[in-house]
Amino acid sequence: MNEELHWTRYPAAIVTAVVVLHVGALAALQSGLLVRAYELMVPVEMISQIIEPPKPEVSPPPRPPTPIPAQLTQAVLPLAPQPIAVSDPTPAPNAPVVTPAPSAALPPIAAIMAAAPVPAPATLPAATPAPAPKLELPRSDADYLNNPAPPYPPVSRRMGEQGRVLVRVCVDEKGQPQKAELSKSSSYERLDSAAVATVMRWRFKPGTRNGVPEAGCVGVPVDFKLD
Fold this sequence. Notes:
The chain is of the alpha+beta class. It has helices at about 1-10, 10-30, 35-45, 70-75, 110-115, 155-160, 190-200; strands at about 135, 165-170, 175-185, 205-210, 210-215, 215-225.
């Protein structure tokens, strides 16, 4: 009776407490506290699992040994040692003595070389010498050339100068003199100059090689004599 009187005395306080609890619950739902609590509880349930202990490994039964063929066994086994024959240098008693016959003397090397036939040297055919070329020097004494005698210098005639001058002249393949020079002097300059000038005006028969005209040089004597 007293308890009933106690709750009836404070109806406003009870109603107020219930309202406050509901308001707090709504506020917690709006702020996400309950959702966070649910999210924290879910991983705990996922992590929990049953871990089985590892099973022991079972080794296969041992294989029986493979038998080795008899042929291989015989090949591998070492052979028994064989007796070795040892020669005894001591001759047996009453053994016959054999004396080697002397070898025949070999002939000396000189006798063998002398007895051996010596091959005759091969004879080579004699080389035929090439024919020498036929040369002819230029000429100035042919009659058809009509070369005049050199003029006698008047001063040399009055002074009695005379002698022989040797002129070396070079002629082309047409017989025309191209160059003349003094080869031997007459000891008189006037006679030497007259001889060189005269030879340069002469005509010559050209020199030839195997009948073919070619240029060449020749010495021409020029005489100066007083009558």
